[in-house]
Amino acid sequence: MSRDSLGWGNVSITLAPAEEEHAAGPVNRHRWSGLARNADADRVRKALLAEDRMGVVITGDRGVGKSLVGRTALSGFGPDVYTLQLRTSGPGSATPYGCLAFTLARLPQSSLGSPTAILHGITSLIRSDAAGRKCVILLDNAGALDELSTGVLMNLLQTHTARLIATAQRTTDLPPDFYWLITSGQLAEVRLANLTELETLEVLQAALGHRVSSALANQMHQLVGGSPTLLQAVVSEQIERGNLVLSGSVWTLVDEVVLDGRTALEDIVRARYARETPVAREVIEVLSCARTMSLSRLAKMYSSGLIADMEDAGQIVVDRTDRHFVTLGDRYLGDIVRNWLSVERRLELRDKVPGHQQHELAELTVEDLLAYAAWTHDCGAQLAPAHALAAASAAVRLFDPKFALECASSLNPGDREWAEGQLQKSAAYLQLGLPLQAMSALDDVSEPQINALKVEAFAEFVAAKADCMAWLSDRSGQVPELIRQARARLLDLSVNEPATAPDELSRAALCLDLCEFNYLSFIGEYQPMMERLHAAATADVDAIDPVHRLRASIILMEALCMTGKEVDARKLMREIGGQLGEWSNVPRIRENFAWRSFNVLLLSGQWRQSIDMLKDASGRAGHGLHSGSAATDLAVGLAYVYAGRGYMALDPLLAAIAQLEVRSSLHSLRQAYAATAFAYAQTGNSVQAAVYLDRARSADGAARFTVSSSAEFCLDMASRWLGDPEAKDRLVRSAEGHFRKGRYTLAGIWMLGATVNGTVKDFQYMEEIAGLRQGPLAELSRVIAIGSRKKDASVMLEAAELAISLELDAVQARCAALAFDFAKAAGQTGSANAAYSMLESLSEAVPALPIVPRNKGPLLTERERQIATLAGHGVSNKDIALNIGISVRTVEGHLYQVFTKLGVSSRSDLLGLI
């Protein structure tokens, strides 16, 4: 099929990436608050205009945008209302008429003789300036208002000379007279809350002008607590530092957020810090250096009253776990204060903390150990080898690879912890997607050092080496021999070293078995290990290594799905999920389960559940909240693409690409490009689809089998959607390759994609594969194969219903289009109408059909004819919508019906038919 014939008239409007452009820098900070506060300004105006009110008080925390809302409310009144803006300040609260000083200077000498004369003089002056118009006064920082100014303003309100908009953090901060007006209902209160995460995302997108990933919005929201003012300051600083960049059409972070206070954020922190007592400042300094500390240790240093007061004020947060860990209420405060402290001051504070003496470090928890390690590095000091190794291991477990590398760098080749430290360094490099550096770290361990390892440590070292080698094309094939040699050494030890405990040898052997299972799943060779994997997942090995069976079961779950046992795989997945709570202390077990479960659900057709499963995986980040977001965004986009919902896939996919492009070490970029090309093809945007196809074809790099095979599938499907005549043959050849390897699920999915215009032989093969699989997706493939081979409209409608149950929009559209053709050819009016109605319902969800009905539908309606005439004359969808008073999406839906009914594929063909 040609590229043009595959669309529904190319009428969809899809948001394409913008051209690469230089970020002009942050916008004015008042605009940031305004973007989030327009609705609040409307609330203020509504309250102000109520007949029974004298005004309104805007309350909320510092930085929430109270003043901006007040000014925005004022600006909405226009020239028919006289407005006056007043402001008090803390030091000026003792100054008589402080906020009215400029008005006082305009009074004649005769009006300055007494407070009463001044009151009447200011009232008369304001009435004169208003010139008969209504008057509204904005009083900023009303909590610091002096007594005489209060009297003047109360007179203005009581005489109906003016109405008031006042700002304060709390109503209790107001002068007593104003507070009485609130309690009596004469002043309304509008309380401003901090931005929600969704509002933070919306403000970032509006202010920065391009897409912002949900992961970035989440991180910024957590960092600033939803304050628009702080949000603007942090974003400004990150743009200035070059850490927040526009990649393609998406704003993304190059690295983790580090705040050094070089912009307006430092002024905010200094103003807040200056108001604290010396003891409270020291608490802030200690928690800035420690990041987190147990309440029991903090209580040994400072009084419980001080800690309680700081918690009540929101300066510190005490969590509700058994350890009651304490952190600063605002992370940005800690980052900036820490940068102020000299090395000498950091060391002085560190030595004050109980438990930080050398002989006490072995008793620290993981969190305390990491805090101590970070504090030590901030001081430019070296960790003791044992503590460096323990901290590096803990950082790897918490997915903080950069800090793990910092800790491991404290070790020297002469330390006895060196080999195990290199093991942790290698794991950290792999987490960063740098297998070459990970391999180099292990290669630096000498043969004598390897031989000196205990038997279990030796097996773990071999497993780590195999993990690294699997990523390197020139060494991947050497992994089986590496494992064979390691097993031979274990056998020699069992014979020649009777002192070695049998349990240790057994655990080491299980470690090597798991290493082999991981390697075979990495390269996609599931069938050869199925028997041994089944045995490992069901054997009673709990007495030796209770975690081995669980890890083997997780791999088996994925292997079952790949080899056609989708139902068995999901059943095992549920069983494992019920056991995970007992093993929460096992490093990375929950994340490994979540990502393999994602594959199981996605390939079983359960795409919506696969997205839900990512909630577990997205929580894997340790100190770096940003670290796992690219993988999560990519997986979400991939799930939408597999469901045929390209329009929903683009935002997460483009966000993933932006992050992956600035981290060239990661290995999923080809998959992201391919999935994005497929998404654009599904939306009918052939230009952008072709762009991302070219990028995917030029991208290279090692990847896991699940990633590389998915990339190939998306590449060929996008090409087929765009009319590449060779794409179908590539899909069929891939399906045959999967079939020979026993990967029946992949073979079935590939054949489903290849057979949009399949032959009888293709459908027979597809039906044969479906017979070797389990589950609803296999049944859907079987029914499509039978209906397509027999050209039976009723069977194809049955397939369409199955696709609806799986929410597979593109597959449903394919089945409905074929059902319509088959029914029209057989004269089955009822089936044809049912199929056509189904196609109409998909007009917005699937703007580009995978296959276009050959037969013409019913005659055009009056509205369809009107829209078709305008479109044929070259009028854009937007202008058509404005012309006849409907939405652009409705125009697109009508045009889809027109193109389907008339059997054309371009707007230029319409004039000859209307």
The gist of it:
This protein is mainly alpha-helical and 914 residues long.
Structure description:
- This protein is mostly helical and 914 residues long.
- Among the domains are: 29-191, Rossmann fold (3-Layer(aba) Sandwich); 542-617; 856-914, Orthogonal Bundle (Arc Repressor Mutant, subunit A).
- The chain has 44 helices and 11 strands.
- Strands 2-3-4-1-5 form a 5-stranded parallel sheet, with helices on both faces. A 3-stranded mixed sheet has the order 6-8-7, sandwiched between helices.
- Helix 19 runs parallel beside helix 22 and helix 43 crosses helix 44.
- The longest helix has 22 residues, at 502-523.
- The chain starts with 28 loop residues before the first helix and ends in a 12-residue tail after the last helix.
What structural category characterises the helix and strand content?
mainly alpha
The CATH homologous superfamily name of the domain at 29-191 equals P-loop containing nucleotide triphosphate hydrolases
- Write out the strand line-up for the largest beta sheet, numbering strands in chain order: 2-3-4-1-5
Radius of gyration over C-alpha positions, nearest whole angstrom: 34 Å
Largest sheet: 5 strands, parallel
Number of strands: 11
N-end to C-end Cα span: 25 Å
Using the coordinates shown, work out and report the CATH topology of the domain at 29-191.
Answer: Rossmann fold
Instruction: Specify the helix fraction band.
Output: 55-70%
Number of helices: 44
> Given the C-alpha coordinates, what overall shape results?
flat
Uncertain segments are 1-27, 619-627
**Chain-averaged pLDDT:** 83
